[in-house]
Amino acid sequence: MGPIEMCIREEGRHEYFLWRVSNFNLIWEKLLETLSDGKKMMLNIIEEASSAYDQREEWCAKLHALKMKAKNDELLHTQDLREMQRIMDHDGKLREFLSVKGQKRIMKDLEIKEQTRRETLIKDEEKQVEVYENTLKQIQDFCQENNIDRIAAKYLKQEEENFALFNYVNELHHELENSNKELDALQIKLDEQKAASANDIKDQQASVKMIDEYLGQVKQEVQEAGEVLKGTEEKFKSILDGIFQIFNILECDHVPILELIGNNTSINSNNVSIYLSLIEKRVSELITIAFVTDSSVFCEEENLELENIS
Fold first, then answer.
1. Around Cβ 237, how many Cβ atoms within 10 Å?
2. Which DSSP letter does residue 253 get?
3. What is the pTM assigned to this prediction?
4. Where does the record place a coiled coil (predicted)?
5. 217 pLDDT exceeds 60?
């Protein structure tokens, strides 16, 4: 075995030893940690056990005190109960003695009270009978009859008449109610008619107001149209005057007008067409005359020019 192999083997052993040491250290630390946790848990358990023991001792002491108190209370209540029973027995005996002793006096008092009650009842009945007799006497005096049967017959007859009158009054009351209902219905209808009439009057007043406004507007428009018409008539009159002046300036023939309208030669809307036709005719004549005159003048000028040339 060479030195190199020896060195390699030593290094391997050294590494293996280091691994074993590190592994041991890890296991040791885990064991120490586990031991520490176990100690902590044991201390906690010891503290809880001590606390539970102390609480147990405290509750045992309280339970013993309560038992002693309950026993003492039981003794006191038993004594009180015996004392009350003794008092009740004494009271019972005393009540029995007093009841036996005062029985005769009580019976005597009751007999006196019963006698007084009977006398009072008899007096009340006598008073009631007296009242009935007085009432019967008044009825006999009122009816002027001593026979009770006849009085009863009269009463029954009068009662029947009263019942008939009562029914008649009920019928009248019923009819009166119906009449009141009809009157109420008629009053309601009358109020409705009044309301409708009032509404109609309001509508008519509104319509009249609208018509008045429209009439005023129409009057204003008519007035404006009248003013426009007046201006138009003035313009038309001025136009007619101008036409008549043109008619006179052109010295138109009045004979056709006199033949158609007579001696009234004033121009108006009815005969303006005649004046216009005569003016048109006169203008045509004047144009023709002017054309003929111009033609003759032109011919004379040409003749003069020809003579001058020759």
1. 13
2. -
3. 0.31
4. 169-235
5. yes
